[in-house]
Design a protein that fits this description.
single chain; alpha+beta; Immunoglobulin-like; five-stranded antiparallel sheet; elongated
Length: 167
């Protein structure tokens, strides 16, 4: 009889391990589902979730509203690209090249009768198609300027035009 008990004993041990594993997995699953359900049924969690969804929808609405208000045929104002600085014996016009693709070849400078005009144009390709940006700014220089001594130089992303004058 002892031999018969020995033969069935490994099967009983295996059956016990399988039963314990199944019971452990079931308890772990039940615990995870119970925690998730308690969290989801918590009013604070639901309020935070709704607030997050409302903020997201509000952002989408504002983007849509801004897009609808834009007129694709209306020219858009560019930021100030040219700044005029008057020093003791010269004028300096400082042009920001970043919006112009960083290329000083996109800038044109003309000086006629103490009026200096800085203009430029650049084509930009984007995901919504191509756009052409152009600008023109004119400044009246109230001193006697010497157009022959006008210099142009590039320093980093700035294009500096120097126009000396005589008092």
């Amino acid at each position: 009889m002892l031999e018969e008990e020995r033969c069935h004993h490994p099967w009983l041990k295996l059956l016990g391990i399988i039963l314990a594993t199944f019971l452990g997995a079931f308890l772990a699953f039940y615990f995870a589902v119970d925690m998730t359900m308690n969290k989801m049924m918590n009013p604070d969690y639901q309020i935070r979730k709704m607030e997050k969804m409302m903020r997201h929808q509000e952002k989408k609405f504002h983007r849509f509203e801004e897009k609808m208000m834009e007129n694709p045929f209306e020219p858009q104002m560019a930021p100030m690209l040219v700044n005029l600085v008057k020093e003791s014996d010269e004028y300096k016009l400082i042009v920001d090249l970043k919006p112009l693709g960083g290329d000083d070849k996109n800038v044109d400078v003309k000086l006629n009768d103490n009026i200096i005009t800085v203009s430029g144009e650049v084509e930009k390709s984007g995901r919504h198609g191509e756009r052409i940006m152009n600008f023109s700014q004119a400044f009246y220089l109230d001193e006697n300027v010497d157009a022959q001594k006008m210099t142009k130089e590039r320093k980093g992303s700035k294009y500096i035009i120097t126009v000396p004058f005589e008092e």
